[in-house]
Amino acid sequence: MRTRPLKVALLGCGVVGSEVARIMTTHAADLTARIGAPVELAGVAVRRPNRVREGVPAELVTTDATALVKRGDIDVVVEVIGGIEPARTLITTAFEHGASVVSANKALVAQDGAALHAAAQERGADLYYEAAVAGAIPLVRPLRESLAGDTVNRVLGIVNGTTNFILDRMDTSGAGYSEALDEATALGYAEADPTADVEGFDAAAKAAILAGIAFHTRVTLDDVHREGITEVTAADIASAKRMGCTVKLLAICERAADGRSVTARVHPAMIPLSHPLASVREAYNAVFVEAEAAGRLMFYGPGAGGSPTASAVLGDLVAACRNKLAGTTGPGESAYTRLPVSPMGDVITRYHISLDVADKPGVLAQVATVFAEHGVSIDTVRQQGKDGEASLVVVTHRASDAALTATVEALRRLDTVRDVASIMRVEGE
Amino acid sequence: MRTRPLKVALLGCGVVGSEVARIMTTHAADLTARIGAPVELAGVAVRRPNRVREGVPAELVTTDATALVKRGDIDVVVEVIGGIEPARTLITTAFEHGASVVSANKALVAQDGAALHAAAQERGADLYYEAAVAGAIPLVRPLRESLAGDTVNRVLGIVNGTTNFILDRMDTSGAGYSEALDEATALGYAEADPTADVEGFDAAAKAAILAGIAFHTRVTLDDVHREGITEVTAADIASAKRMGCTVKLLAICERAADGRSVTARVHPAMIPLSHPLASVREAYNAVFVEAEAAGRLMFYGPGAGGSPTASAVLGDLVAACRNKLAGTTGPGESAYTRLPVSPMGDVITRYHISLDVADKPGVLAQVATVFAEHGVSIDTVRQQGKDGEASLVVVTHRASDAALTATVEALRRLDTVRDVASIMRVEGE
């Protein structure tokens, strides 16, 4: 066994970084045995050097991340800063100086994954980012390696713990969105500025990464249709319950039926209570993968948090170190299919639509005509009347999102339709 | 990209083998792109050459498997024969002639994994066997690679589809074991000779493989405590229901609390309906992995069948081919912890015991005394009397299996205990 240690530079020492440093110290013997050589924390770049970091030797701490990655003796850079810059420049600089990179940075990989992979390949380095998607749940490696001989047709999952916590609370307690968000914030499940989570940006970045790997093509954050959960109401959740469903924020990546394009989207959707994703509670994540030969696989676990994310980072660190020792690299980007990403309008889905309508004869016929004119077939209609007003709840059969959107627009123009109270897609059947 | 194809020899062309051959043909372009070179089926060894195999060119078929693996130009041997011999000799010969091996052979890996890994390492070859455990569900690779930086404490799962189908039928229809087995046989879920499945040998082999990888030690089939499902009665299932539980055949691999030993066992057990494994229906498999940093992960999917198993084989084939091209090998055996495997008596578990007792005063006190004398604490007792006889159902707190077994032996010796009607462990809490 080699005795000269592999040197690791850690960029960022927050919740994840400090846990990575801690495990590298407490489990040094295990890591040595599994890698085939000792691994040493050679430097830790932070923004605020004075914050006490338990277990991280003070002499390793620096505020000059650039100098750290330029040292030239670093074998693997672990980037847990997050955000686009300075992470992107630091990672690129690390490759230029001969290091492999393990990153937990979903935003950066979703935006610039192709360029980063190219930079890694040019320098014969590895770029790993299991921690960028669903914390400790192995997804990137199973999709890239275990299913490398299969054809993935669909990835459907709950990949954001904050929004799942909020929707779960709304479902179990009947609370409204704001109330549930407040609870999530108080319990530490939501950040002070929850935008990235509740507006679906975080889930959309993960969807882009998963779609690219699953379909062997390039999908970036901009390709992902994104709707958050801020408009989900207690009434929507109640409607879902009446249908035997619950509401989840889903990331859905699909290959078109003809195999010639893919779609990627993040939006709240109703799913039947019988679907395994319906029982994913609190801040847990779960992802279904449907492949031609493998069938339906599900991966479930904690999607965030310092320890789970550190577990994923360390798995990648072991792989990157092993490859360094063997003088090789793991599988890089696979984007040979060059499948285009279709717009949301091409997605085939179902709508659950609640309408406030005038309570008079002929309204249902009028509404049904609008659906028929757009080629949208109706699955069920439920009508409730009270005091001259009535509500119609329509669930459609599968149709293109464009046709469904056009139907809703046409419904809004009907005199007898006073309001389109809510629209939600129905998935998971 | 290299244009000389990598050559693959297929040993066995039954349900799995013919599906591997089919996908290699229909998805040749994808495999070429993912591997970085074309991959070619160079020979198919079978026992019965005259059986028609759709999609397998007749000129590739041979009955001389030994000559095929000795050809010297084979890059990867795919072994889907099963059983110990001739599979073991063929695999060893394949390594000697420079090939890497992908195997779906759980019995062989569970018995001789260490020797096979050593043979592979000696020749600089790969030995992969994702398909040996839980079909298409990625488990070997996530445990070996994704969790390489973590400490796994427990693996708990349903890893045999046949027995899960039978127990599921008994649970939903109230059928007895024989009736449910007949249905499984008629539907193709059980083989004509179901011994390997219903006696737990298949699950025990998988438990040995999972325990070895999870705990970085050597665990063979003989180390696994094994009980099948043939003695599970409709009454046991009914008892489980009364407790809010269901009965599953579980494979459980655990690291002892002090970290100094491990255990591996397969037996039927009651698990609460609230546990995610309780809702694993029909022939599906699901495995929980509990790791220090990652927390609780679950992997779910079809655990058997030609296509799912072929998916796992092909994922390994892609990895083995990539390594061949790069002149490297993937991670081999990791058994550095050398943790001993403790006997079943050391396992900490809970018992659900049904006793037929004399319906007279003092019996409960007598029974309770026996538990106390063995240091086994009682959680609940349910007593039902009829016609001078009574039944006592006792659920214990956690205790060593040795103490629980000794308690049951002592109960049998009590005059007032007419019969120990059933004993089942309670897990998953």
From TrEMBL, chains A, B:
Organism domain of life? Bacteria
Write down the InterPro entries for this protein, in alphabetical order.
ACT-like_dom_sf, ACT_dom, Asp/hSer_DH_NAD-bd, HDH, HDH_cat, HDH_CS, NAD(P)-bd_dom_sf
Q: Report the EC code(s) recorded for this entry.
A: 1.1.1.3
Q: What reaction is this protein's catalytic activity?
A: L-homoserine + NADP(+) = L-aspartate 4-semialdehyde + NADPH + H(+); L-homoserine + NAD(+) = L-aspartate 4-semialdehyde + NADH + H(+)
Entries under PROSITE patterns matching the protein: ACT, HOMOSER_DHGENASE
Provide one Gene Ontology biological process annotation.
methionine biosynthetic process
Residues given in the record as NADP(+) binding sites: 11-18
- Give the residues the record marks as binding NADPH: 106
Listed binding positions for L-homoserine are 191
* Domain ACT: start-end pairs: 352-425
Q: Does the keyword ATP-binding apply?
A: no
Keyword Metal-binding set for record: yes
Pathway assigned in UniProt: Amino-acid biosynthesis; L-threonine biosynthesis; L-threonine from L-aspartate: step 3/5; Amino-acid biosynthesis; L-methionine biosynthesis via de novo pathway; L-homoserine from L-aspartate: step 3/3
**Keywords from the named record:** Amino-acid biosynthesis, Metal-binding, Methionine biosynthesis, NAD, NADP, Oxidoreductase, Sodium, Threonine biosynthesis
What residues sit in the active site?
A: 206 (proton donor)
Concerning its family, UniProt says:
Belongs to the homoserine dehydrogenase family.
Q: What does this protein do?
A: Catalyzes the conversion of L-aspartate-beta-semialdehyde (L-Asa) to L-homoserine (L-Hse), the third step in the biosynthesis of threonine and methionine from aspartate.
Protein name as annotated: Homoserine dehydrogenase
Q: Which organism is it from?
A: Streptomyces sparsogenes DSM 40356
